[in-house]
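Pipeline run #58 for the internal structure catalog. This entry was flagged by the ingest filter as a single-chain record with no existing model, so it goes straight to prediction. Upstream metadata was stripped on purpose; only the residue string is passed forward. Reviewer on rotation: M.T. Logging verbosity set to normal.
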Amino acid sequence: MTNHSSADQAPKPSYPKTHLMAVAVCSAVMVLTLTLLPSPDATATKTVRLKPTIEQSNASAKARAQELMDESLAEEPLLAELEPATPVRNWMDQKVRSGDTLSHIFKRVGLSSRDVYEVMSGQGEVTLLKKIHPGQTMRFAIEEQKLVALEYVMSRTESLVIEQGSEGYVAEKHQKALVPYTSYAEGTIHSSLFLAAQKAGLSEGLTMELANIFGWDVDFVLDIREGDSFRVIYQEMHLEGEKVKDGEILAAQFTNQGETFTAIRYETADRGASYFTPDGDSMRKAFLRSPISFARISSHFNLRRKHPVLHTIRAHKGTDYAASRGTPIKATGDGKVVYAGRKGGYGKVVIIQHGQTYKTLYAHMNNYARGIRSGTRVKQGQVIGYVGSTGLATGPHLHYEFYVNGAVRNPVTVKLPHAEPIPKQDKSGFLAVAQQMVGQLATYAAAMESESVAQLDQ
C-alpha cells in the first residue's frame, strides 16, 4: 500500500482512548435506538426486530477485525494441502406428482426398476423414500446412464442425499440450520385477542400459544375486556434471510381487567421447557380453566336454575359451554377415568378422578375419544370426547362439573391449585433470566410508548 504522507505534513491529532471509546458507545446507542423505534407512520401496535446489544455488537466487530488480521497474516496454502473440489454434477429435477411411485419418477429420468431396488437396498435412511408427497422435489445426477447421486428435498430445511459408494448406495439426512431472530410485539384489545394479535403482526399459531400460556388465569371468552393488552418477546426462525416458521415465546405479559400476568420461558434438564411467573411459580395450574377452547358459556353454575327441558327448579351444578357438534373436549387435569358411559340425563358422560381431592364431569357427549374407558389414565389437555346433545339437552353443548372433596364447586370461579414451581436447584439461574426478560419487556414497551407520544406531539 502506497503511503502518500510526507515529513512536511502536519501530524494527525491524537485523542485519548477514553474519548474514542465514549464516541463509539454513543454511536452504537444511536444506531440501536434508530433501529429499534418504529417509523413515524407506524402504530403503537406492531412488531419490531430486536437488535444485538452494544456489547454483542462490539464483540462481533472485534471478532471480525481479528478474522481480517488473521487472513492478512496467513500464508498461502500449498496446492497439495487444498481439499479436493466437490464434483460438479448435472442435476435433473423432478416434481413428485399425485399418484407417483419411485418407479414412475425413476422411469421419467431414464432409470429402471433395478435402479429403484438398488437404491432401496442401500444403507442409511433410505426408507424415507417410501414417504414421498406430491409437490416435493427429487434431483437426479446420472452419468453414463448410471445413477451416481439422488437428493430428495423433503422441505426447505430437510433433504435426503443418496450417493453411490464402493458397496452400494448410502443415504444421509441433511438438516439446514435455522437462525433465530428475537422480535417484540404488543397490542391492545378492542374486540378480540385474535384481531389485536393479527394487527400486532403475530401469527395464528403464536396467538394460540399466547392464549395457552395465560389460559390457566384468563378465560379468553368470558374474562376479556376492551382495553386489555399484551406484550410478547418471541423468536422467528429464518433460513437464508427469510422467515421459515415461528419460534418460541420467550417472555410475555397479559393485562386483564387491570391485573397483569407475566410468563417467562425456562428449560430445565429434567422437565424440559415450561413457563413460570417471575418468582418461579408455574404458570400451569393443576387444571385448565375451561375444557373447550374459545367456547361461549351458555348457562352458568346456578343451584336454583329452572331446567330448560323439565321446567322445574333443579340445581345446575356446572357450567354449559355452547359449541358445534363434534368439537373436541379436553381433560382439564391429569387423572384417571372412573366412569365412561351413559348416565341418566347426562347422556354420554366421562368422570375423571384427579388424586384424592378433585373430580371433574363432562356430559352430553356425542361420542368418546379413542381409548377413553374406565381405568384409562389421561393427561391435561388430552381430548377425551366430542360435543353432542345426548341425555336431557336442548342442543349440542358440554356440561362441565368440578368437585372438591366431593362437594360441587363453580368451575368458573373455583381457585385452581398450582402445578410444581421451578426446582430449587434451578431457582438461581431462573431468577437471573427472569429479571433480564422482565427488564427487556419494560424497555421495549417504553420505547414504543415514547415513539407514540412523539407522534402525537408532531
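catalog note: Confidence is low (pLDDT under 50) at residues 1-13, 27-47, 51-58, 75-82.
catalog note: Residues 427-457 form the longest helix (31 residues).
status: ready for reviewer M.T.
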